[in-house]
């Protein structure tokens, strides 16, 4: 209950404050943060809910971005192009996931790493279509709809906010349904999940396809905002970055995914002034988080809320998950 | 024919560096069930240390190699103590993540110290050629292959015959049983990190005169080494040796006769095929998880 | 004669050179408590793993209520009505007792993702029914007080019980229990004995692997004895314990202890 209140306040704040403090730079950061949050939430479906660590998630981000950009450049409305891009990405997820998700342990992680590299190499080398390292420009903005004109940063911000809320809702519904429980069981112990009647392969692949589709939506949102795509954006380091945002936020937790995406985007913006040290600090932060706070920011928050609850003599409340 | 032989030498050069990098990785993977993403950074660190020794301190290349191997061995042990050892009882994925953190730290620390620009490590052999008939072989390449083979034989001997090697294999095969048999697992793990790190550093110092030295050179090295580990089967030394040479040769032939842009794709395609068709490695047999 | 609820025909599984299960043919009547005994390494757990589709047999066939289930995947076997516990307790790590049991209702929930997304009445009523069912089971078997505890943090006796209730919650007609008395004290063991009988009295069939011979004697209607993967005898407790081959195999070198059986 308390969590819902927190969420409602957050949403109100997100809608409200750009109206008062409109500032293009800040709005830009928030748009990028929103895109990252969607990406982290998408990774959370396969790596958090289902516990299958993916090291190639930027591939789906890239597939979404390029597919949506290229389709819309062929004349399709951006809205349709974005949806088709999500479907293409989901199909790619099915194609890769179906064989690979049968493997145990770290093999899925390594396979996704390979897949991410392959997609990056294709984007980089398929010059005829993607224009390779020169980058893809001339991407259209989303067509305006009544009340929103997406050449305005603030209007694009609202679009992203809406998408974020939608993906949060999707994640929560998934988590609270039989699918979410099946995925939790798979994450905990596949053999037990199977014995309890869970079709493990089906749920893993389905989760992977959802994860890919949502990442592609983040890709489309990125493409039609930045209006220029370069293969650099989708290389292995990007996949690692998404995973790290998820871990720092709190893997498996929706709130954590949101916090992780926001925190790291804003932090790297802030650390830009110390560019030389930024990445080192980042690396040290990662090692510290896994050693000292393996449940990430959301875990810390839950712990604090627990302390606060006890202090309030209401006993420890469990707000994790 | 000459062309083919030339490619074969190049393939062996790449292959031997893959083997040297993969050996430590496969042992650690087998022991700790851990993907160490910072492993390639040890190769990179080895190359940078050797370059500095030669360029700044005017040490001979032949001395720089063992010195940098030693320094990196220590670095490997420090890395294990600080970033991995504290996580020995936590979920496996945390080890992976911690290694990603270490990899980022090392890459950027090196960049801070030496700058991002590629460098070259001068070697006395770089400009020498040996010719057999029409075939001209660069001496550095020959040197790489010979030294690598020497190191690989040495390691193979240590692992197969020495007491500590047998303990290492026992730990890689089944850590819990090894502990029950009275093996001091912690020391063995530390020793393995040291050996693995110094082998990776040797690969870095050997390749540095041929390719350039730059802070992110370890990233691809790690990824390729994973491919080799999978090809050989996790924890399998012989498999890693065979897998490394196979990958080096296949990649080089593909780059020579097909497309140099897509040569890296081959490694990943091989990897995914191995995962799908022979998940226990090219030479391994699939075992049923005990329930 | 009633159709057996479970039957195997020359079921075999080889692990490399080890023959873990060697051409075993058994048949279990519905409503029985059927004991599967034999020394350590005899292949009992492997039988369970075969019958639940976790291992695939090298040869032979298995039937559930006459239906060939030899090639079915585990989750389908569960849907047909077979469930089990594990010798090494496998509760979902970090999940509460309630959550551990709720997962067993998985395949009874027939709503799809769209109805979950829009939280339709169908979704809500099915979810509510499943949760009520779990709560009723917890109440019925006196576990309500542990409902929200992390299952894997509880004492072993409770954990074993949670695993058994979880197996029941799948709605299985045939329940496999793999050494449920391991690690229990005498009081807990006698409670377990009552629990197993109660499961049978509710009309279910139980396949029981157990080393505690008092428990086996107390509850089993029929017993099969395995040794080195082979079925060496099948019959009532009194029959099999009189068979010198069984005594020899089961007690091995401790033959002199046979008198205490
Ligand atoms: N996954 C497996 N891989 C290899 N051997 C196995 C496996 N599972 C069981 N075994 C072997 O099969 C035999 C029977 O084991 P098990 O069924 O666990 O015996 P029991 O439950 O009767 O004590 C043993 O020799 C055991 O080592
Ligand atoms: Mg057993």
The ordered string of helix (H) and strand (E) elements of chain B is HHHHEEHHHHHHH
Strand order, main sheet of chain A: write it out: 1-2
Number of domains of chain B: 1
Low-confidence stretches of chain B: none
Number of strands of chain B: 2
Provide a compact summary of the structure:
The complex is a heterotrimer of chains A (321), B (291) and C (261). Chain B is an all-alpha fold and 291 residues long.
Write the layout of secondary structure elements.
The complex is a heterotrimer of chains A (about 325), B (about 290) and C (about 260).
Chain A: H1 2-20, H2 24-49, H3 58-73, H4 78-100, H5 107-125, H6 127-130, E1 136-137, H7 153-176, H8 178-188, H9 190-195, H10 200-226, E2 228-229, H11 236-249, H12 254-271, H13 275-292, H14 296-311
Antiparallel strand pairs in A: 1-2
Chain B: H1 2-32, H2 39-55, H3 61-84, H4 92-114, E1 129-132, E2 135-138, H5 139-161, H6 163-173, H7 175-180, H8 185-207, H9 217-232, H10 237-257, H11 263-277
Antiparallel strand pairs in B: 1-2
Helix pairs in contact in B: 1-5, 1-6, 1-8, 1-9, 1-10, 2-3, 2-4, 2-8, 2-9, 3-8, 5-6, 5-8, 6-8, 9-10, 9-11, 10-11
Chain C: E1 6-15, E2 18-24, E3 27-28, E4 33-37, H1 44-51, E5 59-64, E6 67-68, H2 74-80, E7 82-84, H3 97-102, H4 113-117, H5 121-140, H6 156-169, E8 174-178, H7 186-201, E9 205-209, H8 213-219, E10 222-227, E11 230-235, H9 237-242, H10 244-251
Parallel strand pairs in C: 4-9, 4-10, 7-8, 8-9
Antiparallel strand pairs in C: 1-2, 1-3, 1-5, 5-6, 10-11
The complex binds adenosine-5'-diphosphate (ADP) and magnesium ion.
């Amino acid at each position: 209950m308390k969590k819902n209140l927190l969420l409602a306040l957050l949403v109100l704040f997100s809608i409200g404050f750009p109206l008062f403090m409109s500032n293009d730079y800040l709005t830009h950061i928030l748009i990028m943060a929103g895109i990252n949050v969607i990406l982290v939430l998408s990774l959370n479906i396969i790596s958090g809910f289902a516990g299958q660590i993916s090291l190639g998630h930027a591939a789906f981000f890239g597939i979404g971005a390029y597919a949506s950009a290229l389709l819309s450049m062929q004349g399709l409305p951006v809205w349709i192009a974005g949806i088709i891009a999500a479907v293409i990405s989901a199909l790619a997820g099915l194609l890769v996931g179906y064989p690979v998700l049968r493997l145990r342990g770290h093999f899925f992680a390594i396979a996704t790493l390979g897949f991410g590299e392959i997609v990056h190499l294709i984007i980089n080398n398929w010059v005829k279509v993607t224009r390779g390292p020169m980058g893809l420009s001339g991407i259209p903005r989303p067509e305006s709809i009544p009340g929103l004109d997406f050449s305005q940063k603030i209007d694009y911000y609202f679009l992203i906010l809406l998408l974020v809320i939608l993906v949060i809702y999707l994640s929560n519904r998934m988590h609270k349904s039989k699918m979410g429980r099946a995925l939790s069981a798979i994450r905990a112990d596949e053999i037990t999940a199977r014995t309890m009647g869970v079709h493990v392969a089906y749920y893993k692949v389905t989760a992977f396809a959802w994860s890919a589709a949502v990442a592609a939506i983040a890709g489309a949102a990125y493409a039609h905002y930045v209006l220029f795509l370069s293969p650099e954006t989708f290389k292995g380091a990007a996949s690692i970055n998404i995973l790290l945002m998820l871990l720092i936020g709190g893997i498996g937790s929706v709130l954590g995914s949101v916090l992780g995406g926001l925190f790291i985007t804003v932090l790297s913006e802030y650390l830009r002034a110390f560019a030389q040290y930024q990445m080192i600090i980042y690396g040290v932060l990662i090692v510290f988080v896994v050693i000292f706070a393996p449940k990430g920011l959301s875990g810390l928050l839950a712990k604090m809320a627990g302390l606060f609850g006890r202090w309030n003599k209401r006993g420890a409340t469990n707000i994790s998950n | 024919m000459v062309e083919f032989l030339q490619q074969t030498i190049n393939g062996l050069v790449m292959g031997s560096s893959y083997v040297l990098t993969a050996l430590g990785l496969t042992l650690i993977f087998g022991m700790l069930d851990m993907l160490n993403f910072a492993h390639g950074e040890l190769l990179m660190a080895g190359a940078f240390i050797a370059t500095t020794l030669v360029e700044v301190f005017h040490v001979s290349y032949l001395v720089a190699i063992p010195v940098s191997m030693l320094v990196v061995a220590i670095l490997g042990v420090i890395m294990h103590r600080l970033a991995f050892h504290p996580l020995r009882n936590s979920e496996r994925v945390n080890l992976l993540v911690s290694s990603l953190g270490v990899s980022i730290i090392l890459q950027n620390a090196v960049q801070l110290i030496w700058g991002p620009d590629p460098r070259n490590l001068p070697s006395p052999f770089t400009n020498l050629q040996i010719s057999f008939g029409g075939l001209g072989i660069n001496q550095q390449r020959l040197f790489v292959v010979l030294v690598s083979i020497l190191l690989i034989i040495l390691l193979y001997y240590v692992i197969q015959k020495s007491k500590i090697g047998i303990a290492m294999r026992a730990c890689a095969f089944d850590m819990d049983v090894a502990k029950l048999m009275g093996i001091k697992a912690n020391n063995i793990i530390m020793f393995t990190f040291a050996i693995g790190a110094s082998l990776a550093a040797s690969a870095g110092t050997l390749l540095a005169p041929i390719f350039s030295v730059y802070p992110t050179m370890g990233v691809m090295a790690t990824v390729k080494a994973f491919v080799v580990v999978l090809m050989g089967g996790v924890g399998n030394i012989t498999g890693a040796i065979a897998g490394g040479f196979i990958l080096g040769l296949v990649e080089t032939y593909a780059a020579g006769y097909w497309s140099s842009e897509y040569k890296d794709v081959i490694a990943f395609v091989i990897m995914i095929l191995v995962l799908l068709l022979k998940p226990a490695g090219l030479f391994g047999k699939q075992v049923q998880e005990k329930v | 004669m009633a159709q057996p609820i479970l039957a195997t025909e020359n079921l075999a599984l080889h692990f490399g050179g080890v023959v873990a299960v060697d051409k075993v043919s058994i048949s279990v009547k519905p409503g029985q408590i059927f004991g599967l005994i034999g020394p350590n390494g005899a292949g009992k757990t492997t039988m369970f793993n075969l019958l639940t589709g976790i291992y695939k047999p090298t040869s032979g066939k298995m039937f559930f209520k006459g239906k060939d289930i030899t090639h079915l995947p585990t989750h389908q076997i569960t849907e047909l009505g077979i469930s089990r516990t594990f010798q090494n307790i496998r509760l979902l790590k970090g999940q509460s007792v309630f959550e551990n049991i709720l997962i067993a209702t998985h395949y009874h929930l027939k709503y799809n993702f769209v109805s979950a997304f829009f939280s339709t009445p169908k979704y809500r009523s099915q979810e509510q029914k499943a949760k009520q069912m779990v709560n009723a089971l917890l109440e019925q078997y006196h576990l309500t007080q542990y409902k929200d505890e992390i299952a894997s943090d509880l004492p072993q006796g409770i954990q074993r019980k949670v695993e058994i209730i979880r197996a029941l919650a799948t709605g299985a007609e045939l329940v496999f229990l793999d050494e449920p008395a391991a690690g229990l004290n005498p009081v807990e063991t006698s409670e377990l004995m009552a629990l197993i009988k109660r499961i049978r009295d509710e009309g279910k069939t139980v396949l029981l692997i157990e080393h505690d011979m008092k428990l086996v004697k107390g509850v089993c209607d029929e017993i099969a004895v395995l040794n080195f993967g082979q079925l060496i005898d099948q019959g009532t407790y009194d029959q099999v314990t009189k068979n010198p081959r069984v005594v020899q195999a089961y007690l091995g070198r401790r033959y002199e202890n046979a008198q205490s059986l």
